[in-house]
Design brief:
The structure holds three protein chains of three kinds. By secondary structure, chain A is mainly α. Chain A has eight helices and two strands. In chain A, 31% of the residues are buried. In chain B, α4 runs antiparallel to α5 and α5 runs parallel beside α6. Chain B is elongated, with a radius of gyration of 22 Å. The two termini of chain B are 38 Å apart. In chain C, α3 packs across α4. Chain C is mostly helical. Classes of the chains: A mainly alpha, B alpha/beta, C mainly alpha. Chains in contact: A-B, B-C.
Amino acid sequence: MFKALVWLQWKSSRAWILAAALAIVALPVMSVVREWPTDREAMAQFLSRLEAWSVFYPAAAVVLGIAMASLAWRADRRGGFVYALSLPIARWRQVAYRYGAGVVWVLAIGAVLWITTLVVVATTPIPASLRGYPTGLAVKFALATVSVFTLGFAMLAVPDRLERGLAWVGVLVVAVQVAALFAGSETNWLAAFLEAIVGPTGPLSLLGGRWMLIDV
Amino acid sequence: MTDVIRFDDVSYRPGAGFSIDHLSLAVPAGAIYGFLGPNGAGKTTSIRLMLGLLRPAEGRIVVLGESIPDRAPQALGRVGYVPERPHLYPFLTVAESLRFHRAFHPRWDQAWATELLGGFGLVLDRPLGRLSKGEMGKLLMLQALCQRPELLVLDEPTDGLDPVVRREVLSAVAEYVAEYQATVVISSHLVHELERLCDWVGVMDHGRLVTQLPMDRLKNGIKRLRLTGPLDRLDGAPFSVLSRSGQGAGSSWVVDQWEPAMAGWIGERGVLIDAVDDLDLEDGFVERLKARREGNTHV
Amino acid sequence: MRLSMTFKQPGPLLQWLEDVDARSPIPLYEQIASRLKAAVGGGLLAEGDPLPSVRLLAGELRINPATVVQAYRLLEADGFAEMRQGAGTFVRSPSSDQRQREREAQARRLVRGLLAEGARLGIAAKEIKAAWDETLKERSR
């Protein structure tokens, strides 16, 4: 039964899973640098530039976590949960299995990130003053996504329409920020917003902190 | 255990004007139990209570010897359920939906599933979101049957289907019962569809049970009498009167619990019986509902 | 004779049984039994022919399997069929005695139907009897 539910989660959210896997491969590959500056001042500037990019890791964790949570129950919610409830399985067990199924896929994407970062770090000449953190980043990403997924999974009661609205706002915000960064803008209000919820006092502090693959 | 389903004094009040009040039901083992009533009578709610999808406010429900809703998962493994509205996952194909369903039902009959798929003309790789109403109805029935249940609960299984599909679906039910001696509860507002299939009938209206009888007693007990002569005093009548029309000479009475010997009781009162007409299930059903609503079951 | 399986075209015997009427005051099992008797009389079924299985007939007619069993029991009691354990139900040619009794029973059923129809239309048995005698007289002329 658990296998069937893992498979069901794949069927319902494979587009998101694949997109997340793609993004998670692209992020470290794109943010890596072939030629590093030699003087300290340029290096510091460089790192802050990298940090601007690194905001997309927690962003991806949030989007993926919410998507997986909402897709875990979407079809059931539409049918008034009648099918799920008519299956011969205790309610708590079904909820646990479905939660587990979501976690399985989140961890799978975490594994994809881990492999990618390992490869990237191994194939990039990193200056002696810096270090790669492939495992740390992947674990942090997986834990953060699981946290968001858990939160979303618990907040199933959000009506369909509200949920769709929130998803669109999220996509829009990320798109605008991407455009702004490409245009060379210094403002990073996505980071500011994230800081508010995920900072040391925010509800998802795990999402805060540094998300650097390569750092001092 | 002779009753597959028992409701003892069950009440359920979701608020907002509708409630199930003091419902007591008994579906004997091996019965094909027609659950009748107009739309909104509470049939679907009762069925959901039966399956443990809802929790009653009061009363006791036992299905296949399991106390509901606490032991619903145990009972549900032996129950095939076709809901009023399709509830399967639209992003799965027919084959995928069967595969998912099968994972929860260890007694799944794959040979019969294959046979029914062909017979019903279902295309394996079609997504459920693109099935017609008839195809969805057939798929739901197939899933319920192939899990080889001891009890089939069918909530308006033919509603909105065309006559050909309706026949196929009801045929499959009759064949299943012949093969496995299962008990069936089948709800419908199309009374006459159940007339040939069911041997027990329960009628609901406004969240209450109006009557519950073996089909032949329901059909044979109700007669329309045509009388000549005034029959005014009914105290001590061995039958009950559901309705009357016309006064004095030439009146028409619909009576319940009628037996041929009761003609004597009327004759003793100097009234001639012109005719004793049978009512079919639908007319009988309508008369009972009317009598119940007007509160004159015992005039 | 060949009987159809589910989902195939119904055979002639099933077509013959298809229009049993659940709304009729005559119970379904009686209707089925008398139709099958008529099928034997009419040569559609011969001695030793298997009757449709309970599953097949219940499925095709969308009726309660118990009704089919009841019909077959009635046929057996009347000497028109034989239920063999595990093998099914087979046609038996009734003795001429039984045949005669069946013809009489059939005739009584016809008359009962006629009277019931008359009652529905408000025509008394007396009037039907008169019309009956009248018609017979006309025919014999």
